[in-house]
Fold:
Amino acid sequence: MSHLAHVDPEIAALVVAEEQLQADTLRLIPSENYVSHAVLEATGTVLQNKYSEGYPGKRYYEGQQNIDQVETLAIERAKSLFAMDHANVQPYSGSPANLAVYLAFLQPGDTVMGMALPMGGHLTHGWGVSATGTWFRGVQYGVEQTTGRIDLDKVRDLALAERPKVIFCGGTAVPRTIDFPGFAEIAREVGAVLVADVAHIAGLIAGGAHPSPAGHADVVSTTTHKTLRGPRGAMLLSTAEHARAIDRAVFPGLQGGPHNHTTAAIAVALKEAAGPEFRAYAHQVVANAQALGEQLAARGFELVSGGTDNHLLLIDLSGKDVPGKVAAKALDRAGIVVNYNTVPYDTRKPFDPSGIRIGTPALTSRGIPASAMTSVAEWIDLVVAAAKAGDEETITKVRADVKALMDAYPAPGLPVR
Ligand code: DSN
Structure:
C-alpha cells in the first residue's frame, strides 16, 4: 500500500488499523468473513476502470476483450457450483439483487410473501420500512413462539389466503435448515415464484453442509461475501425459464455498469468454493456453531429454536437480564464482535433488542477448531455477567485471552506483521 500511504496517509492508517482490528478480534458476526489473498487481490485490480453495461457478447461499450471472459468465467462457475441453469453475477449487493426480483416478477402493489424481519427475515422480503414493503404489498410469516421454527402448514394457509406472486424463503437470523422442497410445494400450489434467499448459507450449500435449493426454487438470490467467502457482491441464479426476466431486471432495469473487479473476485471465490478444502470448511463452520451452541446452552443461555443446524446462533438474553445492546457493546470491549438483534416475539425495540446474533464463519476461516468453543462460550458468559455487574476488569482480562487465541490462529487475507 505504498502508493496509498503516500497519497492519503489518513486513509492508509485507517486501513492498517482495520487490518489490526480484524487480526486481533474474535469476529462472530455471522454475515462476516475473511476473504483469501487471491480474492482480495482481484478486487484491487484495473478491472474497476472499465465500463461494460450489458452482458458478455452484448455490451454497449467496446474494449470488452477481457471483461467478457471474466464475467463468463464467473457465470459458468456459479451455475456449476449451485447447479442452476442461469446466473447473473452483476447485482451490486443483496438488496439490489432482491429488488431486481421484484422488478422481474411483480408490478407495484402486487403481493409478496416473506419472513417477518423480527422473526429472522430480511428487510427486502416485503418488510414495511423497505421499498419492498411500501411499493409492494408484503405479507409475512414467522416462527412459532414455542419452537422458534417455521410451521409450514401456517405458511401454506397464509399463501392460500393472500395469493402472493412471489414467496421468499431464507433470512438473516434463521438458525435452522430451510425446507426448500416444502416451500416449493406451497409456491406451486398458489402459482408463486419461489425465491430462495441463501445469502447467509451460500457457502454451506456450496460445501454440501446445507441442502441445496436447486430443483426447488425458481430463483436463488445470494450475496457473495458471507459464508461463501467472496467479495462484497451478489448473484441471482435461476431456472432457464426465468433467465431473461432476471437479466433484464438487473440491467437495464435496475443497474448500470457492473463492478468488474468484484465480478473477477466472485469468480475467484467460486473457484475456491468448488475445491475440497472448502467442503471441509463448510462442515467445520456448522460443527463449530453446534459446539458453541451446546457450550452456551450449558451456561444457561437461551438459544432461539434450541440450537442450530447452520452457522448461526440467535441468543435471547432476557433470562440473563442484560439487554442485547449492552451485551454486544461489552463483548466488543472484550474483543468479541457480535451484533445485537431482535429475537422472535421480542418485547424490546430493534435498536435496543433482547438478543445477540453470533456465528462461526469467520473464526472457522482462521482454522479455529470446535474444541476452542468451550473457551469462546466461557468468555461470552463472563462478559455478559460482567456487563451486568459493571466489571470492566473481567472484560479486560477476556480481551487478553481472546488476543492470545487470535495470535495462535492468524486470519487468511491479512498481512503478517
Ligand atoms: N446485513 C446482513 C446481515 O448481517 O445478515 C443481511 O443483509
Q: What stands out?
A: The two ends are 14 Å apart (CA to CA).
